[in-house]
Design brief:
It is a single chain. Helices cover 42% and strands 19% of the residues. It is an alpha/beta fold and 380 residues long. Strands 3, 4, 5, 6, 7, 8, 9, 10, 11 and 12 form a ten-stranded mixed sheet that branches. The chain is elongated, with a radius of gyration of 26 Å. The N and C termini lie far apart (65 Å).
Length: 380
């Protein structure tokens, strides 16, 4: 049975709601050309409406060429997702949905910046969950390098927002992103396989973020280190803290299950450093070998109860509605080979980073400090 939801509060009459939702199902390929529709009697029983209401909806859909009636086959779908009318309906419906939600939120006193920040968080979270279901799919289509920015490195929500804004403002520029961890990003730059690396690597000897590691790994490559933001790193755990987790020392408790980040990520480097300082061996942490590639994947695992605790950034914890215990403020930078930094295709991205609007939206996500965002240091 097809899925249709009716509302007594909607401005459209019931038969029009049925029409629109059938068109939407076709536009999104959930109903395909040639498929059988429920009979008028079946659908009226399911929706608990008068059969005449369903009959009127079917009649108008037939007049528009969306449905067709055959003596032996009954009512079938004749329209398709490729029909320009269906595509237009899909766009209009999406626009209407988004507009209604924006107006509702604004009427409740939320600012446009708060809306954009929260939307970016939830969209990023949805993308992580979607990608988790697509394991094993084919590699994406290769795009002209002159119009492509290849980003390899650590996962970050402010970086996600930056990429989204770039795609909106400059749709002709393609962006390819690989979450390979901070060290993976620097190695990709070293091998000439990336244009930009997002990193947050703590140097154990100096206690300084990023610069010592950049100098060590990229010895012969002049780079620009563009500061994106400071961000708060800490422990995520379920709402209400049912396991009474008070700090990293609790990770060695046998009743605590941990979810870890992948080797080479800045978060994993920090965790290993702190565990060594506390004298905790990796094998004492239940779940240390379980790895995910992003902060959002960590937060989702904790929110679903798949782990009791994970180490990640505050913004990701907020997006998944988990509790958060701050541990430190870390520096997240973008490392760009100097030649790429001065290229025309990077100019729009760098301009967005410098904009006050971008800094404001990042700060609204929570757990970010943008007081030095955009500052640049060149390392020869």
């Amino acid at each position: 049975m097809i899925e249709i939801h009716l509302s007594d509060k909607a401005s459209l009459p019931i038969y029009k709601q049925i029409e629109e939702q059938v068109k939407q199902l076709i536009a999104t390929n959930r109903l395909r050309s040639g498929e059988h529709m429920p009979t008028v009697r079946q659908l009226s029983r399911t929706l608990r409406v008068n059969p005449a209401t369903v009959a009127k909806a079917y009649q108008e859909l037939e007049q528009e060429g969306v449905l067709g009636t055959h003596r032996r086959r009954g009512t079938i779908v004749t329209g398709s997702a490729d029909d320009p009318r269906g595509l237009a309906l899909r766009r209009n419906r999406l626009s209407s949905l988004v507009n209604n939600h924006i107006l509702e939120a604004l009427s409740l006193g939320y600012s446009p910046e708060e809306l954009e920040a929260d939307f970016a968080l939830h969209l990023a979270r949805w993308r992580i969950e979607r990608e988790a279901k697509k394991q094993g799919r084919a590699t994406r289509e290769r795009i002209d390098k002159e119009n492509t920015i290849v980003i390899v490195g650590s996962h970050d929500l402010a970086l996600n927002l930056l990429i989204s804004r770039l795609k909106y403002q400059k749709p002709e520029i393609a962006v390819e992103v690989t979450n390979a961890g901070s060290l993976g990003g620097l190695l990709a730059l070293q091998e000439g396989k990336a244009d930009l690396a997002g990193i947050h690597l703590l140097d154990e000897e100096t206690g300084e973020y990023n610069y010592p590691c950049v100098r060590h790994v990229l010895q012969d490559i002049p780079v620009a280190v563009v500061h994106l933001a400071y961000r708060t790193l800490g422990l995520m755990f379920a709402r209400g803290n049912p396991k009474q987790i008070k700090g990293l020392e609790d990770l060695k408790r046998p009743d605590i299950t941990f979810i870890n980040r992948q080797k080479g990520s800045g978060t994993r480097v920090s965790l290993d450093y702190w565990l060594r300082q506390m004298g905790i061996a990796p094998h004492e942490v239940n779940g240390y070998e379980r790895e995910v590639d992003t902060h959002l994947a960590t937060a989702v695992s904790v929110a679903r109860g798949e782990a009791d605790a994970g180490l990640g950034i505050e913004a990701a914890a907020h997006s998944c509605d988990t509790d958060f215990l701050p541990i430190t403020k870390e520096r997240f930078d973008l490392v760009i080979p100097e030649q790429v930094y001065h290229s025309r295709r990077l100019a729009p991205l760098l301009a967005i980073i410098q904009s006050e609007e971008f800094k404001k939206v990042v700060a609204e996500m929570g757990g970010y400090d943008t007081s030095e965002t955009g500052t640049t240091t060149f390392i020869k």
